Amino acid sequence: MALSPTDVARLARLARIELSDDELARLAPQLDVILDAVAEVSQVAGPDVVPMTHALPLTNVFRPDVVKPSLTPAQALAMAPAEEDGRFRVPRIMDEEA
Amino acid sequence: MSAEILRATASELGERIARRELTAVEVTTAFLDQIERVDDDVKAFLHVDRAWSLDQARVVDARLDAGEKLGPLAGVPIAVKDIFCTQGVPTTCGSKILEGWLPPYNATVIDRVRNAGLVMIGKANMDEFAMGSSTENSAFQVTGNPWDLERIPGGSGGGSSAALASFQAPLALGTDTGGSIRQPAAVTATVGVKPTYGGTSRYGVIAMASSLDQPGPCARTVLDAALLHEVICGHDPMDSTSIDAPVPAVVDAARSGDVRGLRIGVVKELGGNGYAPGVEQRFREALDVLKAQGAEIVEVSCPHFKYGLGAYYLIMPSEVSSNLARFDAMRYGLRVGDDGVNTVEDVMRLTRGAGFGDEVKRRIIIGTYALSSGYYDAYYGSAQKVRRLIAEDFDAAFTQVDVLVSPSTPTTAFKQGERTADPLAMYMSDLCTIPSNMAGNASASFPCGLAPEDGLPVGFQVMAPVLADDRLYRVGAALERGLEASWGGSLLDQLADSDAGAYLGVRTDVATPPLAEPVEASDAREI
């Protein structure tokens, strides 16, 4: 199994991470080695083993549906990279051609 | 005076503050001065603010002077790993993407620590988003191991462990996802405990892998760790995975240290090839110490532990890739490339490319791969099955023995830079600690000696069943008592009084005689 720089570039795009050519050249071989080392995991358990999603058995937890104090708009916006009219300002969501 | 305060245990300091022989301000000032004296060399802290800490201390003093009864740690300073949200106080998680961020609320653990009257003395350095075993992945600075500043203090909680071992704080808070409390404790001769999963609240702890992360206490003595454990443990409605059950009697266990009749299982698979000879030697000697105190030692096999590392490096990155999606440059944190032309997706990509370091990128990409269609069953699904097998190994072992033990990590502290280019070698540091994160049981590391070949600390890991955290402290206290009797003091006392530790300025064996009231000091030591 081999993870090529092309694969890594595609995965980075999916994960919304910009990688420079240098980073791609450095990270791709490392990722390949890591995946190779963990691959044996797929050989260990038979089909009858039930996957374990969590450390402890959990049941869903509900809280009473009552209004409690929460952040004010000013507190929520205090650390925003950009703000406009009491809202988070975000970059445009469409490409030019869209 | 100052050296005596800095060398005292947290429980001694708490007693003396409660008796009003010392004030919280005096104690806090002593530690702030120590930070000023040594942290340019150690680099344990990312954020220190004298006014912030002294204000907290003054409030505690006023409450105690008014006759209020606070807990046994009131007025005692504590270093806080920079993964805990502290309202209005910089919290970076070791990442550039959060540089300058001021959280709008406190983690539950932080609120509990404050309510108990502890004084936060600074935010401690860590690997970025707690990903690493050396603290070299911090975006801001590389922390030295107080035993040898050119070596690593462990990770991800290397700032916390280094602060303790350099007498810059008597207590610290950590988080443990695959060993980030226990491995740093092991390589610095400090105590680190990962409580049972769900025992401490994760609310306000910046998430790495939610099914594995667990906050816990870091300290210089077993009793101090237990006292802090009791402060931070317990049910929290703000964390849906928090256990609603009584907290195990950890302080009683730490005071008793009675291991007579306790069955201790040595995990056969955690030793041998890849383990340093000095680590194995000190581990075996520690077993003899426990045996001499009446414990029964048997060998136990946990055949699936050897697959733990591989399964961990699929499950953890999968959860990482999902958790770290929140850093999207929209609501807080860094934003790069918002030039009016770039789209929101471009800005996310550019921000995450610039804001995350190599290890974070590696893990997000591995996780994205492991969860992707066509690979999910082979990777993430298989890893979850292995997780089940590891938990079943624990269950089977705990029908035969009361606790399991192993070295905490296969080697002593390695040199800075030695493993940074080889991620797999770095990952091996967590070989012994990962199984307990996978199964969710309680686990701890206690100092058990210095390896003969390099004179560096070795850690002894104890693993107990879910919600039997008290057994960790029972074994830890027995070990501490037995070993310190043979050493004539703790390992950190040896460091403090050695030439290698002279830079710490806390020698009490030579020249500078203590200025403090010797009567109270000897009283305090009887506790």
TrEMBL record, chain A:
<dbReference type="InterPro" id="IPR003837">
    <property type="entry name" value="GatC"/>
</dbReference>
<dbReference type="GO" id="GO:0016740">
    <property type="term" value="F:transferase activity"/>
</dbReference>
<comment type="subunit">
    <text>Heterotrimer of A, B and C subunits.</text>
</comment>
<comment type="function">
    <text>Allows the formation of correctly charged Asn-tRNA(Asn) or Gln-tRNA(Gln) through the transamidation of misacylated Asp-tRNA(Asn) or Glu-tRNA(Gln) in organisms which lack either or both of asparaginyl-tRNA or glutaminyl-tRNA synthetases. The reaction takes place in the presence of glutamine and ATP through an activated phospho-Asp-tRNA(Asn) or phospho-Glu-tRNA(Gln).</text>
</comment>
<keyword id="KW-0436">Ligase</keyword>
<dbReference type="GO" id="GO:0050567">
    <property type="term" value="F:glutaminyl-tRNA synthase (glutamine-hydrolyzing) activity"/>
</dbReference>
<dbReference type="GO" id="GO:0070681">
    <property type="term" value="P:glutaminyl-tRNAGln biosynthesis via transamidation"/>
</dbReference>
<protein>
    <recommendedName>
        <fullName>Aspartyl/glutamyl-tRNA(Asn/Gln) amidotransferase subunit C</fullName>
        <ecNumber>6.3.5.-</ecNumber>
    </recommendedName>
</protein>
<comment type="similarity">
    <text>Belongs to the GatC family.</text>
</comment>
<keyword id="KW-0067">ATP-binding</keyword>
<dbReference type="GO" id="GO:0005524">
    <property type="term" value="F:ATP binding"/>
</dbReference>
<dbReference type="GO" id="GO:0006450">
    <property type="term" value="P:regulation of translational fidelity"/>
</dbReference>
<keyword id="KW-0808">Transferase</keyword>
<dbReference type="GO" id="GO:0006412">
    <property type="term" value="P:translation"/>
</dbReference>
<dbReference type="GO" id="GO:0050566">
    <property type="term" value="F:asparaginyl-tRNA synthase (glutamine-hydrolyzing) activity"/>
</dbReference>
<keyword id="KW-0648">Protein biosynthesis</keyword>
<dbReference type="InterPro" id="IPR036113">
    <property type="entry name" value="Asp/Glu-ADT_sf_sub_c"/>
</dbReference>
<dbReference type="Pfam" id="PF02686">
    <property type="entry name" value="GatC"/>
</dbReference>
<keyword id="KW-0547">Nucleotide-binding</keyword>
